[in-house]
Amino acid sequence: MASVSITLATIDVANRQIPHRLSVIGSVSSADEAAAARGVAVSALIKSIVIRLSEDQYLFVLVPGDRAIDWSKLRAELGVSRLSLPSAEEAFAVTGYVRGTITPFGSSTAWPVIIDERLVGLGEVAIGGGGGGIGIHLDPAALVTAFDARVADVTKAG
User: Is residue 6 over pLDDT 80?
Assistant: First the structure.
């Protein structure tokens, strides 16, 4: 395994004193490959997606690697009629991360977090560590606590 780089995300998780372990993997071309390299099921590999609520309001939605956002469920959960994905440039501007490295840990703004309910019962999940190939492995309950996250059914089969 390669050595772990220091990122804002890895500093943030350490500063919060959340029990975790870090991993670094090489280049992969699919969620299946990423999960295998990290030693977790695809369902325990978290995709961190930044969503635009309005011109200046965003949130993170944490989705299992084998699922996709169900936009109707997410809109209903939030009580809104419109949501969108920001451009790569906008996502960077509001999180400090480029696409593929986005995570709520160490984000330049502490946006609200919604975690799909399927993640919460798992023993260990892997979320992006704020840099290419860096993963943070932790108990999903720690994510709920760290971000005062809302747990909801917001996904569909991917």
Answer: yes
